[in-house]
């Protein structure tokens, strides 16, 4: 695993073993995961979504504490997966990073609590599975507009985004910040320190 440019996000680029039967890879090993990220992956919920081409899900996040860390991969088709720093006070606040997840390279992305997450399906039947550190709780789940011009996420050309009604009504990053809905970087760092068994630096 290697860190992305946003603190709290990593990408796994696994070694694929291929023979005449197909391929095999390890998409999660607890020891290597903790060594790379400093986190243990607490599994509270596992989700699977299937999307047609052009579907845009996100940007989703949960209140911190407790937050919701996610470990995401695409097992069929392809998606453009986006991590956005929506933590108020973060040195990379408002920045985002995209990783193509597909059934060829078999990459996976881990994002710690407090980061925004979304993806766009690049193929029909794009199937994404993700492991979550906490279960879904609608009282603490939020969305930021994935098409907010201020964020400026570069979604793929030639695709008309298909959003859920909830995602289509999502506030901009500035509106969410003004409403006090965004997590603070300080609270997130304290959460990460607890996950690593230490104190925030």
What do these coordinates show?
The protein is an alpha+beta fold. Helix content is 14%, strand content 33%. It is built from four helices and 13 strands. The protein has helices spanning 30-37, 165-168, 173-178, 185-195; strands at residues 2-3, 9-12, 17-19, 22-24, 45-51, 56-62, 70-76, 78-84, 96-102, 108-111, 116-121, 126-132, 141-143. A six-stranded antiparallel sheet has the order 1-2-10-7-12-5, with no helix packed on it. Strand 3 and strand 4 form a beta hairpin.
- Computed CA radius of gyration, to the nearest angstrom: 16 Å
- Count the DSSP helices: 4
Largest sheet: 6 strands, antiparallel
Query: Strand arrangement, largest sheet?
Result: 1-2-10-7-12-5
Which blocks of ≥5 consecutive residues have pLDDT under 50?
none
- Estimated structural class: alpha+beta
Strand content: 25-35%
Query: Which percent bin holds the helix content?
Result: 10-25%
Separation of the first and last Cα atoms: 23 Å
Mean pLDDT figure: 94
The outline comes out as globular
Order of helices and strands: EEEEHEEEEEEEEEHHH
Total DSSP E strands: 13
Compact summary:
With 201 residues, the protein is of the alpha+beta class. 14% of the residues lie in helices and 33% in strands. The strands form three sheets. Strands 1-2-10-7-12-5 form a six-stranded antiparallel beta sheet, with no helix packed on it. The protein has a five-stranded antiparallel beta sheet with strand order 9-8-11-6-13, with no helix packed on it.
């Amino acid at each position: 695993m290697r860190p992305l440019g946003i603190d709290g996000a990593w990408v796994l680029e696994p070694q694929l073993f291929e023979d005449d039967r197909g391929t095999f890879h390890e998409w999660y090993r607890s020891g290597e995961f903790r060594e790379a990220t400093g986190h243990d992956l607490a599994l509270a919920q596992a989700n699977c979504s299937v999307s047609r081409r052009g579907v845009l899900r996100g940007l989703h996040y949960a209140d911190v504490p407790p937050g919701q860390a996610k470990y995401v991969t695409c097992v069929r088709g392809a998606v453009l997966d986006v991590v956005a720093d929506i933590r108020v006070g973060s040195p990379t606040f408002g920045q985002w990073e995209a990783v193509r997840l597909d059934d060829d390279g078999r990459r996976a992305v881990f994002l710690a609590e407090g980061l925004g997450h979304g993806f766009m399906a690049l193929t029909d039947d794009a199937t994404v599975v993700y492991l979550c550190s906490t279960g879904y709780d609608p009282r603490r789940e939020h969305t930021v507009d994935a098409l907010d011009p201020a964020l400026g996420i570069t979604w793929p050309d030639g695709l008309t985004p298909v959003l859920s009604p909830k995602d289509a009504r999502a506030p901009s990053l500035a509106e969410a910040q003004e409403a006090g809905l965004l997590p603070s970087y300080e609270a997130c760092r304290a959460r990460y320190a607890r996950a690593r068994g230490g104190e925030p630096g």
